[in-house]
Design brief:
Aspartate Aminotransferase, domain 2, binds pyridoxal-5'-phosphate, alpha/beta, 44% helix, single chain, 3 domains
């Protein structure tokens, strides 16, 4: 086949149809067949398969390439639709959005300018408006789709920084330049906020000392009394708080900072309030919308549709209450978006973005809303939040585990605790081991994190197909791996399952030390 036959155009529509259908068929088979979220393959095993592919020798036809793709990718990929994938904030996807993905890459609109997009631009703008309405922003609001929460946070903080500089210049009696203001800028955010806040501060030319951490209460929500004290301290030291970043759904705990109180403090201090709702944005369409009360008072908001709206990566947005603040990212290029286009009301979205060429990710959300509707998304999210509350009950009644907080959203941070209680180092070790062993088995995938210096395990539930019995089964697997490790490596007993523990408790207690795997124990004894 000639190279030109691979170009998608009027003469190749049939090839396009056949190619895509073959690809869809492969994926459908894989998804239908996956009996576990992962095969457990290691980087060392998979790397040679990929490096053995000779990129100088094309296969020529899609069927052969798809066949090859089975072993370099599809066979060992991590499958998020599987109910025992419980690790990260990457969601199972809804079919309307996947349809959108196929359409948008074939048409290949680029949303930087109207003359590369047309309707795509209007659809994106409509969805930005839809989102700001859900947030409760007024008519002056605006925003833009981005590649993810990291980029949304960066852009929001860039706008906050430039607003802070503008105000500092305006209020100064002596002429001030931006480089003189930058060292005085501070960002206040809770100890549980996302690391992209620090990354953004660095990218924005601020030093590592620019991000001040506000402590959280025991539910991992920002302590507003500490925030108030920190705002006062900054003021007395002639520092400029350019933004307070509140988190609506922390990555580890799903905790939501007290938004109304934070809004009051920001208003009093005249400080930009950013709400990072990368994870919690699903509440915008849920019956728990009240958990976001106060978000409408923010100056900017980050939402990740690719986390709690069941959209494929990537799909995110940054929203601002005052559209004029977006001018801080407006640059005109003669070849692309000349100033006269803006004067003639040609909607060039690049004027509001830190990207230039940009995907039409909004189409996925559009088709999702048009096919299943916002309530449909909200129902799915509510279901995982309900399930997490049930799972919390399960965990908190299970003597094998201890759980950190009662969740507001859909994560659970917990750890396996040996009995009798062992030193911290050993608890860390068995929990890390359990996670790795489980990952290597491919039977389930869970995450790990660190809380107050200790290693914990984490479930992030985003799949309504995950049942309580899936969760119970994964807990058993974790306890099995942890118990086996204790026995094999340390000669210690593992813990019983909860029902056995309860009967042991009724029988008088001490029987909690049980022999998980007899052969290993007797080997040690012998
Ligand atoms: C995931 C997450 C981010 C980063 O978003 P990406 O889409 O991964 O770039 C930011 N903030 C919070 C609270 C998150 O959970």
């Amino acid at each position: 086949m000639s190279s030109r036959s691979h170009l998608l155009n009027d003469r190749t529509a049939e090839t396009y149809r056949r190619s895509l259908t073959a690809g869809v068929e492969r994926v459908a088979q894989r998804i239908a067949r996956a009996d576990r979220p992962f095969t457990g393959i290691t980087p060392a095993q998979l790397a040679p398969v990929v490096s053995d592919v000779n990129l100088e020798e094309p296969l020529g036809d899609p069927a052969a390439a798809l066949e090859e793709l089975e072993k370099v990718y599809l066979r060992d990929a991590v499958y998020f639709h599987h109910p025992r994938y419980l690790a990260h904030l990457n969601c199972p996807v809804v079919i309307p959005a996947v349809l959108g993905e196929a359409v948008l890459s074939a048409v290949n609109s680029s949303l930087d300018t109207w003359d590369q997009s047309a309707g795509g631009t209007l659809i994106e703008r409509r969805l930005i408006k839809w989102t700001t309405d859900r947030i409760g922003f007024g008519r002056a609001s605006d925003g833009i789709f981005t590649s993810g929460g990291t980029q949304s946070n960066l852009q929001a903080l860039l706008l906050a920084r430039d607003e802070a500089c503008r105000l500092a210049e305006k209020n100064s009696t002596t002429p001030l330049r931006k480089p003189e203001i930058l060292p005085r800028l501070r960002i206040l955010t809770s100890e549980c906020s996302h690391f992209s806040v620090e990354k953004a501060a660095t990218l924005l030319g601020l030093g590592p000392e620019a991000v001040l951490t506000v402590p959280c209460d025991r539910n991992r929500r920002m302590r507003t009394s500490a925030l108030a004290a920190e705002l006062e301290r900054c003021e007395s030291e002639d520092l400029v708080v350019m933004a307070v970043v509140a988190t609506a759904g922390t990555t580890d705990f799903g905790s939501i900072d007290p938004l109304p109180e934070i809004a009051d403090l920001c208003e009093r201090a005249g400080t930009w309030m950013h709400v990072d709702a990368a994870y919690g944005c699903g509440l915008l369409v849920s019956r728990r919308r009240h958990l976001l009360d106060g978000i409408e008072r923010a100056d900017s908001v980050t939402v990740d549709y690719h986390k709690s709206f069941f959209q494929p990566v990537s799909s995110s947005a940054v929203l601002v209450r005052d559209e004029t603040t977006l001018r801080h990212v407006t640059y005109h290029a003669d070849y692309l978006n000349p100033a006269r286009a803006a004067e003639n009301s040609i909607p060039n979205q690049v004027d509001k973005s830190i990207q230039t060429t940009r995907r039409f990710d909004a189409l996925k959300l559009w088709l999702t809303l048009r096919i299943m509707g916002a309530d449909g998304i909200g129902e799915l999210f509510d279901e995982v939040v309900d399930r997490t509350a049930d799972a919390w009950r399960l965990l908190s009644e299970d003597p094998r585990f201890e759980v950190v907080t009662r969740p507001q959203l859909s994560t659970l941070v917990f750890r396996y605790v040996p009995h009798p209680a062992e030193g911290t180092a050993l608890i860390d070790e068995v929990n890390l081991h359990a996670r790795e062993a489980l990952f290597a088995s491919g039977e389930a995938v869970v995450a790990s994190t660190v809380v107050d210096g200790s290693h914990y395990l984490k479930f992030t539930l985003l799949n309504p197909e995950t049942s309580l019995s899936d969760i119970a089964a994964v807990l058993d697997l974790i306890a099995e791996h942890a118990g086996r490790h204790l026995t094999e490596q340390h000669g210690l007993p593992g813990r019983t399952d909860p029902s056995a523990a309860q009967s042991a408790g009724r029988a008088g207690g001490a029987a909690l030390r049980h022999t998980q795997s007899g052969p290993e124990l007797s080997r040690r004894a012998g």
